Sequence to fold (149 residues):
Amino acid sequence: MVEVLWLLLGSFLGFMGRFISFGTIWYQCEVVWMTQHQKLLERETLQLAVRLSKADYAAVQQLVKAGLYRSSADFLREAVRDKLGSLEVVSVRDVDSRKAERLIEDYLVKHPGPSFASEIADALGLDYGVTFKIVHKLLEEGRVRKAKA
Fold:
């Protein structure tokens, strides 16, 4: 693609060289090429099959017929983008079990009342498996008690 642009640029310079400097033409050609290249990359798509209940399918079709979406695929793409945009990136802290145990105990002191192990893990950025094991250990040792249902 770049070689073709150089050839076109050379031809163009021969024709228009008196009016536009070489740098301006190269810049314009480069911007056009990058824009087209980026569009090609954005157009590269993958297909994902989805099964919907009859009710969900009918609801999507109603939205399409009402003109809110161009197609059911358009609706699904937007739904996926919305969902991906609403998710937050979660990172898990790499701590040893003793430090994790202290963090969990401190959390429970600062947040009295019932707490799910998954809530504790999310709040502290700990691995779920580690958190569940430590909470179970704390329960067995009687250092915390199970909330009444």
Residues 97-140 form one domain. Residues 1 and 33 are 8 Å apart (CA to CA). The chain has seven helices and no strands.
